[in-house]
Design a protein that fits this description.
Number of strands: 3
Helix content: 40-55%
Radius of gyration: 12 Å
Number of helices: 5
Distance between the termini: 17 Å
Structural class: alpha+beta
Strand order of the largest sheet: 2-1-3
Largest sheet: 3 strands, antiparallel
CATH superfamily: GIY-YIG endonuclease
Strand content: 15-25%
Shape: globular
CATH class: Alpha Beta
CATH topology: GIY-YIG endonuclease
Number of domains: 1
Length: 96
């Protein structure tokens, strides 16, 4: 079963959030709608700007922890490398 490591942003070059989930569409929707209290709701971090697919939960959690330790400029470079316009990827993943 695939797992996902993802990055959300409040706006281009704004506040970033790194997370992990087994259901990216559901989790991204929860962030977008503020369905769950926490950092992303408080800081309005709702835009899915990056994600990776990993094969198992252990690899996904390890990757999430690694990205959380990264410097901000490294995370920004990672996002820009695949999504230079910082477009919201939610519609792409939600439509299948």
């Amino acid at each position: 079963m695939p797992y996902y490591v993802y990055i959300l942003a409040s706006k281009p070059n704004g506040t970033l959030y790194v997370g992990v989930t087994k259901d990216l569409v559901r989790r991204a929707w929860e962030h977008r709608t503020g369905a769950v209290e926490g950092f992303t709701r408080k800081h309005r971090v709702h835009t899915l700007v990056y994600f990776e697919v990993l094969e198992d939960v252990r690899s996904a959690i390890e990757r999430e922890k690694k990205l959380k330790r990264w410097r901000r400029d490294w995370k920004v470079a990672l996002i820009i490398g695949t999504n230079p316009e910082w477009r919201d990827l939610y519609d792409e993943i939600a439509s299948g």
